[in-house]
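Researcher: For the annotation table, I need structure tokens for Type 4 fimbrial biogenesis protein PilX N-terminal domain-containing protein. Please keep the output clean. Sequence:
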Amino acid sequence: MKIYRNEKGAALVLTMMIITLFLVFIMAQFTQIINTTRQVTTMEENIDARLIAGMGIDYVEVILNEFSRSELPLNEYLQNEIPEGPVEIGSTDRTYEISFEEFIVDDRPESISYKSIGKAFGAHVVIESQITINWE
């Protein structure tokens, strides 16, 4: 049996294996960083859209609280005060829109149901709300 003692290429093979392991580890870290960044961005967009939809809810509540000072019937007042279509916020890609569930026919309804639709950078959130009115 012949024993080979020529080990001149072993250092090169070992070095190439270590470099390959480091590259695999670094690529796994980069993949994880990229996925985490995408997830954080998506969550920020959804949170922003939810906050904008909530802002639409607050806007309707303020408008209805000011209704007592108006001489108009409720349906006319809301048509004048609530904007049609999406309302842009600032110069960015953020909007909200108020959508009433049904057209208000009665001048003194007991409650009003509506949706606030918030959009931010591609994310879309709908919040449904209902306001009960106590007429005095």
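Researcher: And a one-line annotation?
Model: The longest helix spans residues 10-65.
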